[in-house]
Amino acid sequence: MTIERVKPKALEVRRTYRLVARAAGLPDVRAEVEANHDENRWWPTSISDPRVRMLAAGWSSRVSYRMVETYAEVITSAASRGFDDLVADTDSELATLVRPIGLPQARIGYLRSLAELLRNWEKEGIDLTAESVDLDALVLEFAARVRGASYKVAQCALLTARGYHCGIIPVDSGMVSKLAPVLGITLPSGAVAHERMRHILEAAVRARSAEFRALVTTNGYQVTIPAGVEPTWWVHLVLIYFKRLYLNGPAPQLCDRRPVCTKVVGCPHSTSIAREPGGEHGAARRDRQR
Fold first, then answer.
1. What is the rounded distance in angstroms from the CA atom of residue 145 to the CA atom of residue 225?
2. pTM of the entire structure?
């Protein structure tokens, strides 16, 4: 069973493009995207084994941004040992390896169940890199059978196994709770929201692929996107870093009138209603007074 792909509304596609266009022009977003596009700190291309890449996707879960260097050391050590040797390790040995990033039992459980799933897929003749593979079905099965894996982890694992530019746009909890409202996107409740939003974002890029690619050039991004692929990886990074830099706070220059205001950041509304005395957003205070 898969989650049915519902065609996104034209307004959802348009708003996604407008937000990406606006976010891509922000210097701090651009700096983060350029630093992580061709060689991502979380999922480095130096790891050649797709099984270890999928392991890294799961082990990166619940690691804070300030711990990325520690996480990188753990993953580098894991990659040097190889996936098969890791699976053969005792729980005690694995606990020692992952202790710097915490949650050893959860990370050991992820590895064990991932190895079991990959063995089953191999028996069934499933090639994760094949163009014809049903990615939606694999995401669903991964999330259901790998211990501690959510839809987001499943999306990330398959993306890392297939490569940055495979067409998958991973969606984390912040994109569901903070980015979707900015885009005016209504999502179903529960974990399925991650898949629904992924479908919307991927469809938006597919519908306006050339225009999204043009944004890369127009904004002078120093990144490499292979010819003939949709810029899904670039769009993912633009949105994820816009969310982290402007929505997690949220930033004071963020417009209260989103998604109606297409400028979103640094518009006249931001300066006029951003904050009133007492530290509240003006719009929020007025709403409460009504």
1. 33
2. 0.87
